[in-house]
Amino acid sequence: MIIFRYFAKEIISITLAVLLVLLIVFVSTQLAIFLDDMANGLLTTHIFLQLAVTMIPTLAALLIPLAFFVALLLAYSRLYAETEMTAFYACGMTRVRLLTYTLIMAVVVTALVGFLELSLSPRLARHQTALLQDSIGNDLFGTILPGHFQELSADRIMYVETVSRDRTRLNNLFIAGHSSSSNPIQDNSQPTPSNNNSWDIIVGQTGQKLHQPDKGGDYLVMTQGKRFVGTPGEKNFLIISYDTYGVRLPTAVIGKLKSQITGAPTPELIKNYYHDRHAAAELQWRLSIIIQTLILALLAVPLSRTQPREGRYAPLLPALLIYIFYANFLFMAREWVDEGKVSIQIGVWWLHAALLALTLYLYAGKPGWSVKQKFAHYWRRGPI
Hints:
Shape: elongated
Radius of gyration: 30 Å
Mean pLDDT: 80
Number of strands: 6
Strand order of the largest sheet: 1-2-3-4-5-6
């Protein structure tokens, strides 16, 4: 029990340190993307902070297996390098007991990963989708940058000279887009020139947001301006002066199939497993992160064995190479299932089986012997 507490303390402290470093790296990368979106007026400061907080548990679920794997390698290789493991074996500890201690810790870590991946991460994904939808639609005025050209939608550009202090009133607006799709409120009583090169340009002195759910959502109501519709270089232009003109604000486009599947509750994925390959791919991915934690823990035990003069960092290179191949193929296998290139029955399970086979081979001892001799050599008492 004393030896187990010693191992657990060492491994947990290293796991937390490695996880903290990995989270800093990955969170910083994602925050840079969010900051770029905020600079372009796609996110508000309020949405940015919420997204930054909610993505940490999701990233932690993906990074904990790697952090635990590295911690096992560093902890056990140090014990081998400093001959502490030799002393433990001399005092009666066996490889079966070492594996038992590792599995006890791995089960606890796996339970944590399972909670994050199966329960918390889907809820956070749905919350993030709602935040982004709110940012695109309801918080549009909060993302406007005065004096900058911004995308109002995929095919419309907007320019605002100034914004009121309470961000409810826009002054000197300019909106431009192709007339075929940027004119949600048509005046059918007048002919409108339209071709592939036709543009619709709207200018107004002021603009305010008006919520009209019975007419399809939110509208930007512009006052005292003009609308120009026509093709550059041609004389056939339609010029309309208006007192009040409404432009429908874009609705969120975040809720695509992949986003919906990512945020789907796990029981719903189980229900649709055999009827929807997208649901099957997402469920297999979530379970793969859990299975990955156990397999990597098993793999770390034989990989961490070093000779006293090899150094504590000797196992890291081959172990990280194995992890890189494993993780990349896992992403690819998930995409293959999602795209229908691999059947649901095969799914991503073949990859876990391959790594488990490699792990069992490493447990067998020195290569070149028969399978029976390998297992007999490895499981005998002693460090070598």
